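Input structure tokens:
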């Protein structure tokens, strides 16, 4: 059973009306067992923009970061998995080969809840880039009720 959860998203950086918003986010939860869930954090990436994966070994590349606040009634199982078409390209600005996601990427976090309902809170930190450069880092806060 998959259920869309209302999400509180708050942009911390780049509040100017002139700043493009090339990435939109949606968060869903899916109950996978008695007290287990998958959290689907979906990034919809507008053309010609992209975001970077969570892991990067290159200097100057700002990886996507998903942080969950500690909660004694929840356990995270591993780190978020990435589902999407990871592309490789040459970054003209930093002059290196790099990996990135365009169009859509889903970050999936498995969670065990020891108490119902429980609230999972966290934030997403990412940088949107195009061939013309990158925007300032964006920080999006979210809250998801597991029930």
């Amino acid at each position: 059973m998959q259920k869309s959860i209302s999400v509180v998203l708050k942009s911390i950086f780049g509040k100017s009306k002139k700043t493009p918003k090339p990435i939109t986010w949606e968060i869903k939860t899916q109950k996978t067992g008695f007290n287990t869930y998958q959290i689907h954090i979906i990034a919809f990436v507008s053309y010609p923009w992209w975001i970077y994966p969570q892991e990067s070994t290159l200097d100057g590349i700002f990886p996507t970061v998903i942080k969950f606040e500690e909660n004694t009634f929840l356990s995270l199982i591993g780190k978020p998995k990435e589902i999407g078409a990871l592309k490789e390209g040459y970054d003209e600005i930093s002059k290196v080969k790099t990996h990135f996601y365009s169009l859509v990427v889903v970050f999936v976090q498995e969670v065990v809840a020891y108490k119902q309902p429980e609230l999972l809170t966290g934030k997403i930190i990412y940088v949107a880039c195009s061939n013309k450069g990158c925007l300032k880092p964006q920080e999006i806060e979210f809250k998801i009720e597991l029930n």
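The first strand starts at residue 2 and ends at 4. Residues 1-16 have pLDDT under 50 and may be disordered.
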